[in-house]
Amino acid sequence: MKASVLAEKTGGILHGADTEILCVCSFEDIKAGALVPLLVKDLPEGIFESPAAAFLVKTGTETVSGKTFISADDPEMALVAALNAIYPVQRKSGIHPKAHVAESAVIGENVFIDAFAYIGENVRIGNNCVIRANVTIADGVVMGDDCDIHPNVSIYSGSKLGSRVLLLSGAVIGADGFGFYQRGGKNVKIPHVGGVLLGDDVEIGANSCVDRGKFSDTVIGEGTKIDNQCMVGHNCVLGKGCVMAGQAALAGSTTLGDYVIMGARSGAADHLNICSKTMLAGQCGVISDIDKPGIYAGFPHTSRKGWLREVLLLRGLPDTIKRIEEIERKLNNDGH
């Protein structure tokens, strides 16, 4: 692809020769014909002597004579556009002969259903969806347009997906919640009859689980992104634009506001409310409501500054103990 064409597709401005761009590379591993995004301040020496075809930079960045640059006001979004242009998704359509599609299912236009996928009774799938191999979509599931369901995903009955939902391999949507009554030394399972609602532009990572609600639905808000190996318990409600990093978990009936960020392996106990624009550091454990936006860390959770103070005090504890012991020895010696 010519640099001039790529500049147009990314909304950028071309500076220098109209080179041929073949791929995108980081500046640690530059190949001939590569577009190299320069999104950091500290660049390695000799980078402009590399075989790169062009460099992507922020508008106003000083360029080098004899080299090709594409400048953009928002180079990160320009990079996304460049990746989509250089590596376009190859879409298929049609139903593989080894797929099972119930006669009552309603399939939209330009849909691809791969081998060994199972589409149950009264399922509705919107236009331009991709259902990959070994996907199970149970009876009555509703799916919007432009969804991409990767291999080995399971979507249980009672689930409703908006448009442009992405489910990565092994994700499970709508399995029973973890709820029991303890009677007579036994754990008696509580039937869960709610469903799961996934808003538009939701992404669920590989091997992550979103459990169905007990009576009402578990809800994942528009634009929320959930990483691999995460857990969302029954009846949780996540607002729009939330982010859960790997192995983050929410116990049942906890509510997140909008734009909440959960770091890797962070978690929240059940029946809590966490307000919008809250950030939980990695491994943070929330045990009570958070009603003030900010950055929280530690277990039990506290402000990030408070947690750092606690860590410093704990790490200094051995020295403090030694000093106390020295004082005690001196006092004992003086007493004798």
Topology:
Blueprint: H1 3-10, E1 13-15, E2 23-24, E3 34-37, E4 54-58, E5 69-72, H2 75-86, E6 94-95, E7 100-101, E8 106-107, E9 112-113, E10 118-119, E11 124-125, E12 130-131, E13 136-137, E14 142-143, E15 148-149, E16 154-155, E17 159-161, E18 166-167, E19 172-175, E20 180-183, E21 186-189, E22 196-198, E23 203-204, E24 209-211, E25 218-220, E26 225-226, E27 231-232, E28 237-238, E29 243-244, E30 249-250, E31 255-256, E32 261-262, E33 267-268, E34 273-274, E35 278-280, E36 285-286, E37 294-297, E38 302-303, H3 304-315, H4 317-335
Parallel strand pairs: 2-3, 3-4, 4-5, 6-9, 7-10, 8-11, 9-12, 10-13, 11-14, 12-15, 13-16, 14-17, 15-18, 16-19, 17-22, 18-23, 19-24, 22-25, 23-26, 24-27, 25-28, 26-29, 27-30, 28-31, 29-32, 30-33, 31-34, 32-35, 33-36, 35-37
Antiparallel strand pairs: 1-5, 20-21, 37-38
